[in-house]
Amino acid sequence: MIRKIERDYLKDLEIRLGEIKYSKRICSSIKWYISSANFYKTVYFTLNIIAILIPIAGSIASIILSNPRISLFSAVGSGATAILNLSDCQNRWKLYRITAEKLKSVVELYLAEKYNCEDLASECEKIMSDENNSWRNMMERDNKTDDDKSKNKYFDENSNTTD
């Protein structure tokens, strides 16, 4: 799911990079980050639109039609909101887009002869490694939050309160 302008950029980039050692890895990485960012952006906006419009439509329809089955609209809106919260689409979209733009910037600097081939490869690998570490930290933070939520019960089993 890559826009035409980005596809054209990638084709041009492959030509401009020519036969350097790392061109296929760099181009395929940029393509993956752009595709992933676009996917999560689309999911994020689609689910937000559903989460906003469906409950509104349901409320209006229930007022006009007085039909109890209209509450299904609210359930769909709640489901969209839950998926948004669980999938963390907005953060993934931003992380992948930022990484793609950093990679594109490094490649352009290489093409402007500011980097040699080894520096280009090293810099690209550093950017991808940083993204991977950010993703891991995001996952660990999510897991820690889930663990904290499961530990924070309304009643702590070890407390001896007698209210």
How does this structure look, described?
This protein has 163 residues and is an all-alpha fold. It has one domain (4-132). It contains 5 helices and no strands. It has helices spanning 4-17, 23-65, 71-87, 89-111, 117-151. The longest helix has 43 residues, at 23-65. The protein is elongated. 13% of the residues are buried.
Chain-wise SSE layout:
Elements: H1 4-17, H2 23-65, H3 71-87, H4 89-111, H5 117-151
Helix pairs in contact: 1-2, 2-3, 2-4, 4-5
Rg calculated over all Cα atoms: 23 Å
Order of helices and strands: HHHHH
> Which bin fits the share of residues in helices?
over 70%
Largest sheet: number of strands, sense, barrel closure:
none
Shape: elongated
- Taken together, the total number of domains comes to 1
Poorly predicted regions: 153-163
Report the count of strand segments.
Answer: 0
Distance between the termini: 58 Å
* Rounded mean pLDDT score: 81
Number of helices: 5
Give the percentage of residues in beta strands. Answer: under 5%
Task: Give the helix/strand class.
Answer: mainly alpha
Short key terms for the protein model shown above:
single chain; mainly alpha; 81% helix
Question: How would you summarize what this structure contains?
Answer:
The chain is mainly α and 163 residues long.
